[in-house]
Automatic annotation (TrEMBL):
<keyword id="KW-1133">Transmembrane helix</keyword>
<feature type="transmembrane region" description="Helical">
    <location>
        <begin position="12"/>
        <end position="32"/>
    </location>
</feature>
<dbReference type="GO" id="GO:0016020">
    <property type="term" value="C:membrane"/>
</dbReference>
<dbReference type="InterPro" id="IPR004841">
    <property type="entry name" value="AA-permease/SLC12A_dom"/>
</dbReference>
<keyword id="KW-0472">Membrane</keyword>
<feature type="transmembrane region" description="Helical">
    <location>
        <begin position="383"/>
        <end position="401"/>
    </location>
</feature>
<feature type="domain" description="Amino acid permease/ SLC12A">
    <location>
        <begin position="46"/>
        <end position="403"/>
    </location>
</feature>
<feature type="transmembrane region" description="Helical">
    <location>
        <begin position="123"/>
        <end position="141"/>
    </location>
</feature>
<feature type="transmembrane region" description="Helical">
    <location>
        <begin position="190"/>
        <end position="209"/>
    </location>
</feature>
<feature type="transmembrane region" description="Helical">
    <location>
        <begin position="407"/>
        <end position="426"/>
    </location>
</feature>
<feature type="transmembrane region" description="Helical">
    <location>
        <begin position="44"/>
        <end position="65"/>
    </location>
</feature>
<dbReference type="Pfam" id="PF00324">
    <property type="entry name" value="AA_permease"/>
</dbReference>
<protein>
    <submittedName>
        <fullName>APC family permease</fullName>
    </submittedName>
</protein>
<feature type="transmembrane region" description="Helical">
    <location>
        <begin position="271"/>
        <end position="304"/>
    </location>
</feature>
<feature type="transmembrane region" description="Helical">
    <location>
        <begin position="325"/>
        <end position="343"/>
    </location>
</feature>
<feature type="transmembrane region" description="Helical">
    <location>
        <begin position="148"/>
        <end position="170"/>
    </location>
</feature>
<feature type="transmembrane region" description="Helical">
    <location>
        <begin position="230"/>
        <end position="251"/>
    </location>
</feature>
Amino acid sequence: MKDDTLKRTMKLHHLVIFGVAFLTPMIAYTIYGVIATSSHGVESGSICLTIIAMLFTALSYGHMAKAYPAAGSAYTYTRKAINSKLGVIAGWIVLLGYVFFPMAIWLIGASYFSAAVPAVPEWVWLVGFIVITSLINIVGVEVGSKINFVMVSIQVIIIIAFLIFTIKAITEGMGEGTLASFSPFYNPDVDFSYMVAGAAAACYCFLGFDALTTFTEDTIDPEKNIPRSIILTLLVCGGIFLIVTYFTHLVHPSFDYPNPDNAAYDIARQVAPSVFGGIFLIGTIAGQFAAGLSAQASGARLLYAMGRDGVLPKKLFGRLGKTKTPINAILLTGIIALFAIFLDVTSATAYINFGGLIGFCFVNIAVISHYFIRKKERSTKGFFMYLVFPIIGTLFCLYLLVHLDRIAIILGCAWVVIGIIYLLVLTKGLKEEPPELGIDD
């Protein structure tokens, strides 16, 4: 009989590397202009708001990873802790983020390549990203982890260099001319709604810490290592994003950019030697490559979990290849990413944020259902950990959700409607339970 179980090879440091690579340290520079314009110049305040929202949700993911150590993330947690039919809807919505996330990542990387080498069409770079990343993920997560370590190291070195040039420019009188200022966090002339809008845009920077739960069946001692890796990844990247936005604001307080997508690149050319512009470009591309590697791997594992359960076609998605990786799911995410040729970065990221925030809400509610209601964990600690904190996390996510781009909300709701129709077909009008695979505790 064919063994269709994932190979447990990942330890805590592998998970953190994948998590940091997925979030991409350089991403704060990549979409800095978008956050700056959305928040009207209180970028660091927006980042802080997002970190708070994500921390409550990260705790919920950690709790559910202990309860159900299986691949599938929000899909598995919702169907096990709340309701199997609702789990299908949760999985469908989360697919919006997991499967389309690589598309946005590779689109950003291809656009930077195209800017550097205009003679080569952008779609060529996009296809190159897809093919190389897919081949690495088919080989396995161990190889991907080693490549991601190199990519993350490159990003950290470039970020440190950028910060040095930025601090030097500030001390020489550029921007606010001071290294200590509260203006990146709060401006009395800026309405709080703009800070929230910036936080909603900044969600894209943080989508990915939850993807670590999809590696549960690849991980050694997942009940301990998955929760730890989630919190560590969020804190490490949150700290990097906060430092990046703080000093970038100080050197360029204005949020009026001709092209917000390239704002940080323009600032780099102003504060650093001309050669650094090319180095910054290399770091950005390395970041996108590393993030795409992690995003595709986790998205494929969600497809595998749903295929293994029979929610998606089992013969296509519920089988592993000779390398013990979900090859068909990996290939599908690559094919879907080709649609990025017809999208721009802003629309792609907003669309993904919708799926991510809805998925976060489902996981927070799953914690309440599993621990507080079913298991009756109602001590003082349980009251806060399994009721109050998940409620706060849900409210934060809903608050950010309503501040997303209007078009993204409309398209996201359309995706939900399609999912509901699919559920009705799958369950013959809700008369039958969705297919399910038993999970050993």
